[in-house]
Amino acid sequence: MYGAGDVRVENRPDPKIVHPADAVVRTVAACVCGSDLWPYGAMPATDTGRPMGHEFLGVVEETGADVTGLKAGDLVVAPFTYSDNTCDYCAKGLHISCRNGGRYGFDGVDGGQGDAVRVPHCDGTLVKLPVAADSELVPSLLVLSDVMTTGHHGAVTAGVGHGDTVLVVGDGAVGLCAVIAAKRLGAERILLAGRHAPRTDLGRDFGATDVVAERGDEGIAHIRDLTGGVDKVIEAVGTRQALDTALGAVLDGGTISRLGVPQYEQGPIGPAEFMRNVTLTGGASPARAYIEQLLPDVLDGSITPGRVFDRTFALDQTPDAYRSMADRQVLKALITP
């Protein structure tokens, strides 16, 4: 990505082992994330460009001398950040804060939207998959890299449990996966705030019991009419309006988990919120902590989060994938090298 709206497909040097804990992974499937659309809409122009993509699944081609848990030919899924899985943060399930971790596309590390990726700390990062590269489960396994584990993070941090009523704000891929996660954890009633019928219809398939299409005060009033207010909210957009909806719908003493990367610097944290004892939680998902928890349910078909992919693009069509998602013609674009 060279700037807002400027995504290019380029020939780049093949990834090589740099550190003994590295692996080179040949990409089988990748995708465009909703968070990629924020720089797509606002990134300042640059002469050098930034390798893009942080969600990918592929086959190990080569490993460094210190790698013990993986070998060439293994099919693996990569969480959206890399981590050593041994530091104090990783030990408590906060891999997103790994002391030796980082992000794809930065600091000389490849982006996931390409033919191959050098993965640092591959023993700690990559999760081996017990299926073939041509398995029909590949789309659902791929979303474990980010959106499904992120939706799950929202449900876990919101404290969703059996019998709960939950509001999910946002009908993007993360919001829809949050619906799956809430249902999986036992929520009895799940309200999905969204206004794009194909997406909210999919949300109903995933377990949403009610859809609220209105926005702003009208949407809050509708949620309150339906429920009297909710104890658990998963905010999966990242705009100030989405946060305001969450705050307007949640009951005093309730919990709001924020999953959408905030596109605001200031929010309501004054006396009114203080007096309501509302808990704000969530944040960037430690995806590596959740993949092995969710993997069995994908393998046995209990959950099918790969249904969020509604169009497939070849790698050389990636700029079209960005445009289609930005124009809301596509929910989530699958990329196949």
- CATH H-level superfamily title of the largest domain: Medium-chain alcohol dehydrogenases, catalytic domain
Total of DSSP H or I helical runs spanning 4+ residues: 12
Low-confidence stretches: none
Give the overall average pLDDT.
Answer: 97
The number of domains is 2
- Tell the overall outline: globular
The name CATH uses for the topology of the largest domain is Quinone Oxidoreductase, Chain A, domain 1
The counted number of beta strands is 15
Structure description:
The protein is of the alpha/beta class and 337 residues long. It folds into 2 domains: 23-146 and 286-336, Alpha-Beta Complex (Quinone Oxidoreductase, Chain A, domain 1), CATH 3.90.180.10; 148-282, NAD(P)-binding Rossmann-like Domain (Rossmann fold, 3-Layer(aba) Sandwich). It has helices spanning 37-42, 88-91, 122-125, 138-142, 147-158, 173-184, 197-206, 216-227, 240-249, 271-276, 287-299, 318-326, and strands at residues 23-31, 56-63, 75-78, 81-82, 102-103, 116-119, 127-128, 165-169, 189-193, 210-212, 230-235, 250-258, 279-282, 311-314, 333-336. Strands 1, 2, 3, 6, 7, 14 and 15 form a 7-stranded mixed beta sheet that branches. It has a 6-stranded parallel beta sheet with strand order 10-9-8-11-12-13, sandwiched between helices. Helix 10 links the parallel strand 12 and strand 13 (279-282). Helix 6 (173-184) packs parallel to helix 7. It is globular. The two termini are 18 Å apart. The mean pLDDT is 97.
